[in-house]
């Protein structure tokens, strides 16, 4: 029996929608039929992997990942017939790996160097959704990372790319540098063809990870991922992973940056996502001195503000501690400045910051000098987590 031919009205509507989306800078684009066998299979596979991920407790603090809507689109829009998935290119102008050598500066993930993409992307999707509802009828809902929707499996089902061994989407045209957004609609628009996995035998993303966060290809243990630890994790960063942070103070681009498919990616030209010069490798000592108002002023309108000042300065202090091990990279004056910046945070109002400062200072001072400080500070410290940091030196 021949497959049913797509409704010509829906084909035309989709073509018009795609033209509007491209005019808004959204590409690649794709549609997945939610009742299609291939889409159902991908979502079922994704749910199986998610449940294994949750059982192994690899999600860390991210309790929202267990919400049942993630695997059941109907709970987000009961009559949804199509998932329309859109990419937004954010490919950087230079190799992010080069930024790791600037040990006295803060290395912020490429995606967070400009305006918060959630706001930019959501506004564009909302515009498309309103147009689609006006033209075709039916309800439309938009999603950009902030709802429990499996964007990556849906993007793969819609033909935007495939989930690579680092678990992120990879596109043959845009590499690993894509934000993903989705419209769920009650309209049955013609679906696009998914394509295969083109990772082959490559292991570049797995092998580059500084914390071995990939137990196996296509599996991630978020508890070891530097992006998770610097952004989502609310507690002190585990001691055994602190040195691996290097100068990364918000996110990590390593597994994305080494993907060979990035050689086809074109630099992003979206003015709304342009990188802010003041966030391009700022001095760690200046960042460590930020109070709450200074933090919010510097990072207003960016994704960084979501993490909050306490977690951010925690990361900065770990990076300052790591800079002590770079030998000749720090002159005497810079070393003294770093020590002074760390000491100033030993009396910070946030226990998370104070604890990170203790560890960071321990990277500069001798064991004897830290022991003297620890004997005095341990008695006065009320917070158990900070006392535990001092106890290492008793």
How would you portray this structure in words?
With 394 residues, this protein is α+β, with helices and mostly antiparallel strands. The protein has 2 domains: 1-272, no CATH class; 283-394. The chain is built from 15 helices and 8 strands. The strands form 3 sheets. Strands 1-2-7-4 form a 4-stranded antiparallel sheet, with helices on both faces. Helix 1 runs antiparallel to helix 3. The longest helix is centred in the N-terminal third of the chain and has 20 residues, at 117-136. It starts with 7 loop residues before the first helix and ends with a helix. 43% of the residues are buried.
Ends distance: 78 Å
In which order are the strands of the major sheet placed?
Answer: 1-2-7-4
Q: Tell me the number of strands.
A: 8
Overall mean pLDDT:
93
Oligomer category: single chain
Q: What would you call the shape?
A: elongated
Q: Strand pairing plus helix content: what structural class?
A: alpha+beta
The proportion of residues forming helix, as a percent range, comes to 25-40%
Strand percent estimate:
5-15%
**How many separate domains?**
2
Our count of helices gives 15
Which spans have pLDDT < 50 for at least 5 consecutive residues? none
H/E series? HEHEEHEHEEEHHHEHHHHHHHH
């Amino acid at each position: 029996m021949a497959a049913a031919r797509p409704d010509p009205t829906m084909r035309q509507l989709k073509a018009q929608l795609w033209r509007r989306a491209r005019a808004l800078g959204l590409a690649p684009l794709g549609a997945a039929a939610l009742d299609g066998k291939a889409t159902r299979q991908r979502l079922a596979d994704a749910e199986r992997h998610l449940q294994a991920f949750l059982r192994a407790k690899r999600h860390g603090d991210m309790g929202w990942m267990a919400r049942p809507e993630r695997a059941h689109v109907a709970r987000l829009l009961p009559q949804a017939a199509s998932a329309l998935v859109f990419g937004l290119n954010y490919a950087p102008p230079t190799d992010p790996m080069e930024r790791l050598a600037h040990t006295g500066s803060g290395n912020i993930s490429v995606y967070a160097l400009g305006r918060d993409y959630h706001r930019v992307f959501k506004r564009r999707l909302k515009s498309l959704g309103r147009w689609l509802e006006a033209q075709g009828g039916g309800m439309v809902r938009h999603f950009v990372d902030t709802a429990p929707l499996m964007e990556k499996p849906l993007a793969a089902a819609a033909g935007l790319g495939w989930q690579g061994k680092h678990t992120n989407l990879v596109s043959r045209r845009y590499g690993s540098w894509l934000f993903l957004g989705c419209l769920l609609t009650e309209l049955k628009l013609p679906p696009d063809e998914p394509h295969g996995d083109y990772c082959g035998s490559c292991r570049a993303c797995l092998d580059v990870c500084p914390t071995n966060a990939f137990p196996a290809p296509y599996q991630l243990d978020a508890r070891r991922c530097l992006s998770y630890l610097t952004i989502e994790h609310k507690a002190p960063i585990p001691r055994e992973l602190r040195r691996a942070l290097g100068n990364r103070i918000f996110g990590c681009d390593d597994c994305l940056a080494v993907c060979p498919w990035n050689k086809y990616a074109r630099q992003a030209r979206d003015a709304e996502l342009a990188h802010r010069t003041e966030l391009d490798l700022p001095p760690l000592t200046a960042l460590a001195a930020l109070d709450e108002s200074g933090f919010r002023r510097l990072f207003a309108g960016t994704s960084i503000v979501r993490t909050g000042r306490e977690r951010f300065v925690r990361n900065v202090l770990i990076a300052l501690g790591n800079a002590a091990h770079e030998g000749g990279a720090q002159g005497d004056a810079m070393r003294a400045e770093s020590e002074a910046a760390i000491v100033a945070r030993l009396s910070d109002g946030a226990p998370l910051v104070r604890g990170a400062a203790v560890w960071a200072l321990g990277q500069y001072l001798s064991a004897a000098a830290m022991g003297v400080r620890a004997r005095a500070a341990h008695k006065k410290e009320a917070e158990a987590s900070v006392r535990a940091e001092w106890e290492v030196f008793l």
